[in-house]
Amino acid sequence: RKAFFLRELIDTIRKLTAEQFAGAGADLVYEEKDEDILLYADFGQISQILVNLVRNALQAGASEVRITAWIDSMESVVVDVANNGQPISKESQEEIFVPFFTTKPSGTGIGLSISRQIMRLHNGTLRLSCSDSRQTVFTLVFR
User: Fold this and answer.
1) Which of 13, 66, 73, 129 is the most exposed place for a label (fewest CB within 10 A)?
2) Distance separating alpha carbons of residues 131 and 119, to the nearest angstrom
């Protein structure tokens, strides 16, 4: 683990997913509500989580993925990853973090379960905050 600015991580995510965004004709928007947000985490593992969430959004047909970050009243860093792709069905919402559960023909069903495990190892959480006809939002909280 090391300290790094969240903005640096987002720049890396942009580079890693640029081809997929271009191919989908989609946009990645980043908004930092507090200046110079620092994380103390494993850069590679947190990159893996964000790349997984962004790719899932593109596979759901999103034309925009919006990452918003801020520091809450408990001094936790909160990162919302929102997209306007197809919502996750009510039935699937209960299962998405279960290992090997997938709704995709070529999916392995391990992305979200590994992502949640990585967040737990960082004393944080990953949850599905909302998935409706307007947007799907995953929230990461780093304590």
Assistant:
1) 73
2) 20
Task: Dump pLDDT digits (tens) for 14-27.
Answer: 999 999 999 999 99
Question: Distance between CA atoms of 78 and 28, rounded to whole angstroms?
Answer: 18
Mean pLDDT of 118-137: 97
Buried-state track 46-81, b at ≥16 Cβ within 10 A, e below 16: bbbbbbbbbebbbbbebeebbbbbebeeeeebbbbb
Structure tokens at 52: 């997984």
Per-residue pLDDT tens for 36-46?
999 999 999 99
**What is the phi-psi region of residue 111: left when phi exceeds 0, alpha when psi lies from -120 to 50, beta otherwise?**
alpha
